[in-house]
Amino acid sequence: MKVKATTARRMTRLLTLALTLAVLIGTAACVNSGGGSGGSSDGVTFGVLIYKYDDTYISTVRAAIEKYAAESPTAIALDMQDGQGDQAKQNDQLDVLIQKGVDVLVINAVDAGSAQGLADKAVEAGIPAVFFNREPAKSVIESCSGIFIGTTASEAGVMQGDLLADLWEKNPDYDRNEDGIVQFAVFKGEPGNPEAEARTSYAQSQAEARGLRLDNVNGEPLVANWMTDQAQSQMEAVLAAHDDIEAVFANNDDMALGVIAALNSIGFNTGPDSEQWIPVIGVDATDAGLEAINTGKMAATVKQDGDAMGKAIVAIATNAALKNEYLQGTEYKLAEDGVSVRIPYAPVQQ
Ligand code: CA
Question: Is CATH 3.40.50.11810 what the domain over 153-304 is classified as, yes or no?
C-alpha cells in the first residue's frame, strides 16, 4: 500500500510538471503568433453581431461586409450572428463569440440603450469593439475604447424636409385644399431609437425652416416599427379619418411602401399618370423603394449607403483586430464627438 501511494504521488508530480510545461509552451506559442506577426500570415476573425437579419437596409450592410472582407488583403474570417431583434439572444451570442476568441467584435446592438453590458464584456475579454448603425451613448463607446460607425442621425430628416419643401415649391397643386398649409403624417420607426427620433423631428423642423406651414393630421407621429404591414394598416386608418392629407414622411422605405399600398387601395399614387397623388418621402433607398420611385408611386427617399457602411466597417474592424489605430491607412476621419465615423446620406428622387 505504502509503495503504491508513493508511486502515485510521484506520477502526480510528473503529470503536474508536464501540464505546467505544456501550458508554458502554449502561452509562448500564443504570444508569438499574436504579438509580432501583425496578422498578415494567418488572418483575423470578426465576430459580427447583427440586430436582425430581416431588415432590408441591414441586409445591404451584411452583403457589403462579406464583399469587402473577401476583397481585403488581410485574410478575414467572418463569424456572423442574427440577433433576431432579441437583446437577450444577442447577449448570449456575444458570450459565444468571446469564448471562440474572435479578434474584434463588430456590434449592431439590438437595443443601443443596453449596449453598456456588451461593452463591459468586450473590455473584460480584452477584445476591441466596433459598433455600427444603432448608436450607443458616447460614454458607452468610450468605456471600451471603441468606435461607432453610423450616419448623422439628423441628416436624413433634414434631407426629407428639404425634399418636401422643394416639391411643394414646384407643385402648387399639392396643396389640395388650397389652405396654404401642408396636412401631413409622419411614420416613426420606434420610440426612443435615436435615428427614428431624429428623422421624425428634423424632417418637420427643416420643412418649417424652409417656410412650409405644417399640420400633422394625426397630431403626433404614428409608430409602425419600421414595418410595411403596420404602416399600411395605420395609413388606412389615417385615410379613413383625414382624406385631406397632402404629404407623408416615413422614417424608412419599408414603412413608406406600406403607406403607398394604403394610398393605392383608394386610387392614389398608382403611377406617373395617377390623377390623385401625394408626395411620400422615405429613407434607405432600398431596391423596393427605388422601384416605387421609378414607377411613379413614391416621390423621394434618402439613401443610406449600405455599401459604403460595409466598406468602412471592414477597414476599421481590420485595424482593430490587428491592434492598429482604428483609422490608420483609411479614407475616414473622426467626427466632432471624437468616437465615431459618419457615412453621408444622399437624396434620391423622381
Ligand atoms: Ca393644404
Answer: no
What does residue 98 show for φ and ψ, rounded to 5 degrees? -65, -45
Pairing between strand 345-349 and 300-304? Answer: antiparallel
Please give the backbone phi and psi of residue 186, each rounded to the nearest 5 degrees, phi first: -130, 130
Task: Say how many Å lie between the CA of residue 181 and the centre of ligand 1.
Answer: 4
Q: Calculate how far, in angstroms, residue 188's C-alpha sits from the geometric centre of ligand 1.
A: 22
pLDDT in tens, 157-171: 999 999 999 999 999
Find residue 50's DSSP bridge partners.
Answer: 82
Distance, CA 184 to ligand 1 centroid (Å)?
A: 9
Rounded distance, CA 125 to CA 224, Å? 38
Distance CA 44, CA 321 (A): 6
**217 C-alpha to ligand 1 centroid (Å):** 11
| Model-wide pTM > 0.85 | no
Written as one letter, the residue type at 289 is G
Q: Select from 51, 74, 35 the least CA-distant residue to 315.
A: 74
CA distance to 135, 153, 160, 168, 250, per residue, from 171 (Å): 37, 29, 16, 5, 20
On whether the 43-145+310-349 domain is CATH 3.30.870.10, my answer is no
- pLDDT tens-digit map of 31-62: 333 333 344 457 999 999 999 999 888 999 99
Q: Are 165 and 212 in contact (CB under 8 A)?
A: yes
